[in-house]
Write a structure and sequence with these properties.
Layout lengths: L2 H26 L4 H16 L18 H13 L5 H8 L3 H12 L13
Helix pairs in contact: 2-5, 3-4, 3-5
The structure holds heme C.
């Protein structure tokens, strides 16, 4: 191999790693909001509402919460790190993918955040 062939090979290898890197990172970040919405409708809306506002004051609001916070909470309920009898049961049925999609769905409901605290 002469120097220009070596340089071309280096460029090709670098490009290949870039492509692999980009496709790996995009697969980690791939959320499916529609799948999250469908799951929320089937399971979570009964308590947390489709708009992410809890239907009773004892059911927390999820609308507009950070994705990372929501997915950590769900992982912790599933692992038992965070203990709550109700949520343990629901989280147990969720795959990693469900958790990501649900967290993303509720995080995108920013318009439904409660505008003010209504404390009396
Ligand atoms: C039967 C009612 C009920 C259902 C159905 C339900 N939850 Fe919950 N959820 C609760 C209650 C009650 C809590 C508060 C638990 C606690 O004190 O840790 C909670 C807490 C949470 C939290 C933590 C919120 C915070 O601010 O820390 C998340 C996230 C959550 N639920 C997501 C979901 C998702 C996603 C589903 C559907 C797969 C779901 N929940 C289904 C009742 C419910």
């Amino acid at each position: 191999m002469n120097q220009s062939q070596i340089n071309r090979t280096k460029t090709m290898v670098t490009t290949l790693f870039l492509i692999i890197g980009i496709s790996l990172s995009s697969s980690v970040m791939a959320f499916d909001k529609e799948a999250g919405k469908a799951k929320a409708e089937q399971v979570c809306a009964a308590c947390h509402g489709m708009d992410g506002i809890g239907i009773l004051p004892t059911y927390p609001n999820l609308a507009g919460q950070y994705v990372d916070y929501l997915s950590k909470a769900l992982q912790d309920y599933r692992s038992g790190q965070r203990s709550n009898a109700i949520m343990a049961g629901f989280a147990a049925t969720l795959s990693d993918e469900d958790i990501q999609n649900l967290a993303y769905y509720y995080a995108t409901l920013k318009d439904h955040r409660l505008p003010t605290l209504d404390i009396k």
